[in-house]
Amino acid sequence: MKISTLVSVAVATVQFGHAAPFSPPGPGGDFGPIEVRGVGHLHDNFLKKRAIDSQNQMTDTNKGLVGGIEAGNVGNRMVNRREIRELAAYAVAGDNIPGRVYDLYILALRRTMTRSPADKNSWWQLAGIHGRPFVPWNNRQPGTRGSALISDPANGAFTGTGYCTHGSTLFPTWHRPYLAYVEEVLWASAALEVRPALAPKAPNGWNQKDWDEERVKWERALEQLRIPYWDWGLDNADLPPQAYARTHKFKYFPARKEKDFPEWENPLYTFKFNPNTYNAGSNFGNDRFRNWFRTLRHPPTEVPGVGDNINECRATLRQNGNNVRQQVHELLLRSLPSDKQANIREPGKINTASDPARWGAFSNRVGNNGASVESIHDGIHVWVGGPYGHMTSVPYSSFDPVFFLHHTNVDRLFAIWQAVNPKSYVTPQQNGGGTYGVPSNQIDDGNSPLEPWLTRAGWRFNSNTVRYTETFGYGYEEVPRHDYTNSPTGLRRFAMEAVHRLYANSVTSSSKRKRDLYTSEENQGLDNSIVNNKYYEWRVDVSTDRAALNGSYSVHFFLGKPDRDYNKWTSQPEFVGDYVVFTHNMEAPPGTDSATINTEITGSVPLTDAMVHSFGQNLTSLNPSDAKPFLIKNLRWRVTDSTGRPVRARNVKGLKVSVSISHTTLATDETPWTQYGEWTFLTDIARRIGKDGGPDKVGIPDLSSTSTTVAPTTTEAPAYNTDLPTLVTLTTSSAEEPTTEAVATEAPTSVAEDVEEIPTPTSADATESTVEASSTVSADDSSPTDD
């Protein structure tokens, strides 16, 4: 079910209030009797009872679903983190417990954001762990018990970054304790909002019986409180309305009656900085962010006083929604690569007997084929932030409240992937630039410390000790480990069915294959494509240098001609999706030769859905015999830098584009999920389309004769802004002569010698035809295609 059917929230138009009715923090900025000492502390002491575990804690009127857990059948279940729109829907529906959970979450965010920046548990410091201001958190210094934290540049630490591990085998695991700690702080903040307000004796205006019931409901809500996630694989990747509504109207509020429920500024919309904090000696950097008093999404310029553009943010996300959903589906259901596929770039270096190829391909964007959880995550960052916003910048992204909704979904996909792949986990990998606590170019593995996170006993967390979400007292609906404690096979099946149900594409979703959902041409194209319950999946594979443009950039893909005006690229019908490079400037750590840092990253963009929508437009099926000529003629790409301006594709260092194919089996009653076949590179397509943006060999229009119109700045942009002027309009363009340079996507010769034969079905008894796999390419083979 689409999230949009669950909840519809209007953006309030009342004036913002500036009151902060919170009880003050305790001495020293801690939580008084509830001190958040480290990951696992509160979970050990307060969240041990992870769910309502006996019926005597609930009244007869509240039987049924309590926080998504069936009353009377709770046992030792984890409390599930919920999708933000689903959780908010309970509040709209007036559900007693989950509705209170959502309002508690808002209360906790507000309290955390108003804490002194000097407090280690303030939003300023929690967000600063990820990147800026590049300082030790919670006084973590070398020599701390169990600590390997390195802060001395002479010994290899990179003090020009935060703690977060990007482009690393540790990417999914580092964020797990980070999110757990933020969840812990928010829980403690919520407890301070509820418990002092709910004294045993009923206050004026309440009878004792009603008051006792009210207190029980809030305690249950507190036990159920976990941070929510934003599932960008649903609802066409649209930004949840809870994240951009300017105000929040409480449905429930501790110790108040409905007529007194307040309406406040929504803490999920933005975080307001304390100017005295980030302008004075805080190492917050000299970027545009020092000139903005709050976090912004898709601001049209980088000048002081500009507002954000939520409409543009949402439009960019929706334009890539199909792309994201297909990527998630394939990421979680892809088959284990064979030796040939796993070693496509470096033959002989991977031993698939221990299953490392699967973890490497899932966990991060370095040296793999296809989309990883990190590469998908990168796109969300940039699409939310736009050219200039906080989410687009690695060191500043975590200050935007949507960051934690986003990363909690990454953790959820990590948990689902673990259920589908129970034998695969963190494998050794050389890191690149390192982090604040990890030296550059070292080999990271399951025992590498996840700085700055310590257990309650003071020992370092590592990937092996954060393997299971139960460690931190939470779970996810798609991974009910409590129901399959002795059956990993059963849990795997449950998770795979959930993935298919949520994210299947136009071909794999049976509900979308009904004839009434397609034109006759589309339906005929599907009929031609599906033979013996199999069809062909198509995708573009991308490899590039993350340092090529000294910041984030995007590669936009099309099935047809890109518009002359690059502002229209992602909204035109021919647009397929973006491959996004999310990175910071590539300054090398002190004492490190930049040439030793591996800056190659990889990802993919699905083509299948876009090709289905092209049926009737010179494409009759997904079979290679029909699809290859279509792609050779129509597949194009363009590149834009961090400001959204075009950069010629051939000038982007390391950029390589190729097409891959997978013979895929549709779901059946016996196996109710898609079974992807191995992915095979089709370099005959790559050499025909070249490397400069497609068969026209243009890359980008000539920008020498352009005029720019900069949008006026505003102190505060409206929540729904549909009238912002176009930022840049091209007035002229010119195409260059076709080039005969070969595509740079060349697979190793050893792979080319083992060409896989792929059947091209034409009927139930289809004969097999050969699709050319990876091979070396000669420039002489690159012939221009008529355009």
Automatic annotation (TrEMBL):
PANTHER family from the UniProt entry: SHKT DOMAIN-CONTAINING PROTEIN, TYROSINASE FAMILY MEMBER
Coiled coil region boundaries: none
Pfam families: Tyrosinase (PF00264), Tyrosinase_C (PF18132)
Segments of skewed composition (Low complexity): 704-719, 733-752, 762-780
Signal peptide start and end residues: 1-19
Native source species: Arthrobotrys oligospora (strain ATCC 24927 / CBS 115.81 / DSM 1491) (Nematode-trapping fungus)
Major enzyme class: oxidoreductase
UniProt cofactor(s): Cu(2+)
GO term, biological process aspect, one: melanin biosynthetic process
Family that this chain belongs to: Belongs to the tyrosinase family.
The protein's name in its UniProt record: tyrosinase
UniProt entry keywords in alphabetical sequence: Copper, Melanin biosynthesis, Metal-binding, Monooxygenase, Oxidoreductase, Signal
